[in-house]
Amino acid sequence: MSRPVIITVAITGSVPRKKDNPAVPISPAEQIESTHEAFEAGASLLHIHVRDADESSSSNATKFAEVQAGVKTHCPGIIIQFSTGARGRDAEQRASALHLRPDMASLCTGTVNFPNIIYMNPVDLIESLATAMIEYEIKPEIEVFDLSMLYAAQNFMERGLLKAPLHVQFVMGIKNAMPARREALEFMVRELNGLMPDATWTGAGIGREQLVLNRWSAELGGHIRTGLEDNVRRDRDHLARNNAELVELAIEVCHEYDCRPATPAEAREVLSLPPAA
């Protein structure tokens, strides 16, 4: 049988604006609708950021709750993952919505340069976020923008702040961070398999690297992330119609490598998550 691949859809992020692509969903209602379209196209995991009315990044827990409730209603079983990212958010706000107990939340295990900011993740903040995720029974997705973050995750796991099996996302193609190099991804996957043989992983490519990482991930046994957070274009000459169109492109890649999109139930099993309520 073909291998089930988890398709993560990162619908909004904190960077793209409607001026970049009018399809970027900003309001909770837009996010719910865009997620539903992506779910019907084949996405089984949703990565959520929320925005204020001026499109700036927000930590408003009420908005996270509204999106979560709407998605649960319209996308039965989909895995809901909240962002704890730092763009436009103070450190003390980054855990603001974890009490809502999403299935998963992002957790970056180190500090890294981005094009215009330093993405600050000091050890005490990582420990605080990881502790909250344990308290609320949330599975972290370890965001690896730099190889050292993988080794840091192993250290946090040895200290009991992370629980096996880990799920890791390798993010490539951000200027000043990890470039999209096949050799680098292969090395990181080998290191992951050696350090944490029960771990799962996803590849995420930024901008024009999105489809490249889709292909590498499918070929190397990983899972796939797509969505307007990372890339607003279908191709060089066309904006993506919506998040669902990018999911459809990812699924076309799956079929090239004898893979298929995982159902939400299969995705939960792969990630050692409990069945949906």
What would your notes on this structure say?
By secondary structure, the chain is of the alpha/beta class. 36% of the residues lie in helices and 21% in strands. It has helices spanning 28-41, 61-74, 123-135, 147-158, 182-195, 210-220, 243-256, 264-270; strands at residues 3-5, 7-10, 45-48, 50-51, 57-58, 79-82, 104-108, 112-113, 118-119, 139-144, 167-172, 200-205, 223-226, 233-235, 238-239, 259-261. α6 runs parallel beside α7. The protein is globular, with a radius of gyration of 17 Å.
User: Using DSSP, what is the number of strands?
Assistant: 16
Low-confidence stretches: none
Q: Name the helix and strand elements from N-terminus to C-terminus, one letter apiece.
A: EEHEEEHEEEEHEHEHEHEEEHEH
Main β-sheet description: 8 strands, parallel, barrel
- Derived from helix and strand composition plus strand pairing, the structural class reads alpha/beta
Distance between the termini: 28 Å
| Rg from alpha-carbon coordinates | 17 Å
The residue-averaged pLDDT reads 96
Strand and helix layout:
Blueprint: E1 3-5, E2 7-10, H1 28-41, E3 45-48, E4 50-51, E5 57-58, H2 61-74, E6 79-82, E7 104-108, E8 112-113, E9 118-119, H3 123-135, E10 139-144, H4 147-158, E11 167-172, H5 182-195, E12 200-205, H6 210-220, E13 223-226, E14 233-235, E15 238-239, H7 243-256, E16 259-261, H8 264-270
Parallel strand pairs: 1-16, 2-3, 2-13, 3-6, 6-7, 7-10, 10-11, 11-12, 12-13
Antiparallel strand pairs: 4-5, 8-9, 14-15
Helix pairs in contact: 1-2, 1-7, 6-7
